[in-house]
Write a structure and sequence with these properties.
five-stranded mixed β-sheet; 454 residues; 19 helices
Length: 454
């Protein structure tokens, strides 16, 4: 049954590339593979600050290498491989302390709660590593043994995505919770704390150096103000509602059993509730934590009723899961070839027209479109792109006002030297550029128009 779930996950996960971010990550990966380095001056956009850090460099480089060898199907395939990997590690982590059907239930809840965020982006690999990290600290909370392999795993996670900081946060909750409850002896708690500190130190040893440690917080200010996924989530969203219901079930099971949860469990429940509500971006974190909490609460309820407890993962089950994951990953290859030929949300038909623009042309395009523009048309210089952390709030506000043809749009275009625009055909700025500045239409495709100064 669980192997069939892995196969189904692979088949369902393959789709046309539809997220805007993979194009930027392909650009970053290609740039790094070619020997490029980010520094004081941004290599692509004239108004970007020179402080951009490629914190997701490892998956960007890997995907760019695959793209060079395989093309766009490689990007579609990475999503399937990532979802299969996430499914596998969740099943194994939850099976360590619960029976098979409970592990399957918890995995399904985690995937359903995370599904909107499981796109063709490095964060997918980050979520898989987070599931491994949570599972390791969960086991340490029960047996008091430090998992020292978390140190190199944290180093790897720090090269993949900023979600590594959540893994450290879970470790901190476990260490503090065990200290409050005075679980195990002082030496055991000290070793767990040292494992946590060593994991934190490992993040300073990546190619980005010590500055990576503070990087998860660098994007926060601009993102929370301008980026939808960094804004508060809504309980009306199905994935959010499901995660909240799961957490409510956990609390109800605790009350029904009449036993007080361990301090670290209660703190993690509160953390899961908070990250589910505070922003859309962290809902998957809440879903993963809720899955661990609900499977353990259900397992303990069954044991208290006289049902035999879980015995862990057997060799045969482990082999079955591994084979199911491998077959799923391989089956995704031909599916990626078929389903990835027509990416969604980008006007592929305008690629050559963009490339024919004079080198250095300053172009205004929608923020989500800008990653694709950077990748397919290196000759243009976007006045803004989706690296929100690379721009000042004033620059972002000016771009938004110009894109929407709000008062002052003409001043923004003049001051930025904008000579071309890639916009949806019904965008307010299109009619403003036609009627007031008499810009010409260079080409159109898939509901988008490329305009240039006459």
């Amino acid at each position: 049954m669980t192997a069939a779930v892995l196969l189904a996950a692979g088949a369902l996960a393959v789709r046309a590339v539809s997220d805007p971010s993979p194009w930027l990550h392909l650009k970053v990966g290609q740039f790094l593979l070619d020997g490029g380095r980010f520094g004081d001056r941004d290599p692509w956009a004239p108004f970007a600050l020179g402080h951009y850090e490629p914190t997701q460099w490892l998956p960007s480089v890997a995907t760019a290498w695959l793209y060079g060898w395989w093309g766009l199907p490689a990007v579609a395939w990475t999503r399937a491989a990532g979802i299969i990997t996430l499914t596998l590690v969740l099943l194994l982590a939850l099976r360590a302390s619960s029976r098979p059907w409970l592990a399957l239930l918890g995995t399904g809840l985690a995937l359903a709660g995370s599904w909107p965020a499981l796109t063709e982006r490095p964060q997918l690999a980050g979520f898989a590593l987070l599931a491994v990290t949570v599972g390791a600290w969960w086991r340490s909370a029960h047996d008091g043994r430090p998992r020292w392999w978390l140190v190199p795993l944290t180093w790897l996670a720090a090269c993949v995505h900023g979600v590594w900081s959540i893994g450290l946060g879970v470790g901190l909750v476990v260490v503090v919770g065990l200290a409050i409850a005075r679980s195990f002896d002082a030496g055991g708690r000290t070793r767990l704390a040292l494992c946590l500190l060593a994991s934190l130190a490992a993040t300073a040893l990546t190619p980005l150096g010590p500055r990576l440690t503070a990087s998860p917080f660098a994007v926060g200010g601009n993102a929370r103000q301008f980026v939808g996924e960094w804004m508060a989530s809504s309980a009306r969203t199905p994935s959010v509602a499901l995660t909240l219901v799961t957490l409510a079930v956990v609390f109800a099971l605790w009350v029904r059993r009449g036993t007080r949860p361990e301090p670290w469990q209660l703190i993690l429940w509160l953390v899961a509730l908070a990250v589910t509500l505070v922003m859309r971006r962290t809902v998957p974190v809440g879903a993963v934590l809720a899955a661990f909490l609900v499977t353990e609460a259900l397992e303990q309820t069954l044991v208290s009723r006289g049902r035999l407890g879980a015995r862990g993962v057997g060799t045969l089950e482990l082999r079955t899961l591994a084979v199911g994951a491998l077959v799923g990953v391989l089956a995704a290859v031909p599916l990626a070839e078929v389903r990835s030929q027509h990416p969604v949300g980008v006007p592929i038909g305008l690629t050559e027209a963009l490339r024919r623009l004079p080198s250095g042309t300053r172009l205004l395009s929608d923020g989500d479109m800008s990653g694709w523009v950077l990748f397919v048309a290196p000759n243009v210089a976007p006045v803004y792109d989706l690296r929100v952390e690379a721009y000042t709030p004033a620059r972002i506000e000016g771009f938004i006002g110009a894109r929407d043809a709000q008062p002052g749009w003409a001043d923004y275009l003049r001051s930025s030297g904008t000579r071309a625009a890639l916009l949806e055909h019904d965008a307010p700025l299109v009619s403003a550029l036609e009627s007031r500045w008499h810009w010409r239409t260079v080409a159109t495709d898939d509901g988008y128009v490329l305009m240039a100064a006459s």
